[in-house]
Amino acid sequence: MTMSTSPRPIRAGLIEDDPVMRAYLKALLSRQEELESVDAWESAEAFFADRRHQGLGWLLVDLELPGDSGIDVIRRMRAEQPETACIVLTASSNPENVFQAIRAGASGYLVKEARAELLLQNLQDAVKDGMTFSPSVARLVVDAFLKAEAAAPTEPQVSSLEKLTEREREVLQQVQQLGNAKDVAASLGLSHETVRVHLKKIYQKLHVGSKTAAVALLAKSRNG
Predict the structure, then answer these.
(1) Which of 34, 50, 95, 195 to pair with 180, CA 20 to 30 A apart?
(2) Do 26 and 75 belong together in one domain?
(3) How many domains does the chain have?
(4) Sign of torsion, CA 59 36 53 28?
(5) What is the pLDDT of residues 51-100, one digit of tens each?
(6) Same domain for 186 and 87?
(7) The domain that contains 14 carries what CATH number?
């Protein structure tokens, strides 16, 4: 039986200690039709003490928090609720912070921008795909990927495609053709959320941080 292709509403959350920024972000996110609800917390401790932290589609988290840090939150969420996409929103684009967050399991990294329209576009990307990077951060990630690729033999990376299940490979092939997670969901008769979960597992198995890198690896395997 074919599953419904209508995307299920996503529950989102954010952890931000600045009350003004917290209210601002919640107002921006609440405008997104794809979001069923948006809950906000001022600290990691308050977040985990609240039962609403369970079952989120994705979580926006600042790195610098009172008490446990945003990195601590991401690590715990990856261990306990790996289906939740954790996206960093912070003032720092320091490479060390970026890669520490990605290694911890972050699905995206946004630098706080003064321009509301750019921040809103980044958040819309997060809602649609569960992954988003600020342009400056995306350049860091791509540069690091290219340097690692140049330094390491290609074959072990390509052979990691063998770790994918048949369904994961099918999803990746559709991503290569269609690009957008929503279109992939419609093409395969899956929910948007199911495609997002498949993509997250694909990234982990291939040790990549973006659709672009995963698709590039698939293309390389076909070109021999």
Answers:
(1) 95
(2) yes
(3) 2
(4) positive
(5) 999 999 889 999 999 999 999 999 999 999 988 989 998 887 778 888 88
(6) no
(7) 3.40.50.2300
